[in-house]
Design goal:
This protein has 123 residues and is mainly beta. It is built from two helices and ten strands. It has a single domain (3-112), classed as Rieske Iron-sulfur Protein, CATH 2.102.10. The strands form three sheets. It has a four-stranded antiparallel sheet with strand order 5-6-7-8. The structure holds FE2/S2 (inorganic) cluster.
């Protein structure tokens, strides 16, 4: 277990997505009203930055690029979503948010490479 401080919980308004870098690991934290999730900063579909394109409503995180969505309470995939979110374990201590970061979580985009042109792929 490697618990690392992300920020004060109060820094992330309800229903928002905020990007952080913790010891060189980029992640986004989502406040979905009933709790927090810390996840990799990109959509597992086609690498869309979730701090910009992620929208949270009624505990559902939706990537507005192609509408993949996940229920942040259960992590269940919604609708046409085809890949689960990876998550870092999070906890709060005295108002501070901590994430258990053993190493950077990443998605394998090999199977999607054929769908993207080089510009997208290397972003
Ligand atoms: S890139 Fe997020 S849904 Fe397609």
């Amino acid at each position: 277990m490697t618990w690392k401080r992300i920020c004060e919980a109060a820094e992330i308004p309800e229903n928002s997505v905020k990007k952080f870098e913790v010891d060189g690991v980029a992640l986004v934290v989502v406040n979905y009203g009933e709790g927090f999730r810390a996840i990799p900063p990109i959509c597992p579909h086609m690498e869309e930055p979730l701090a910009e394109s992620g929208v949270v409503a009624r505990c559902i995180l939706t990537c507005t690029k192609h509408l993949w969505a996940w229920d942040l309470r259960t992590l269940e995939m919604q609708g046409e979503t085809e890949r689960p979110l990876k998550t870092y374990e999070v906890k709060q201590e005295n108002g501070t948010l901590l994430a258990n970061i053993e190493g950077e979580l990443t998605y394998d985009f090999d199977d999607a490479a054929g769908d993207s042109d080089d510009d997208d792929f290397f972003k």
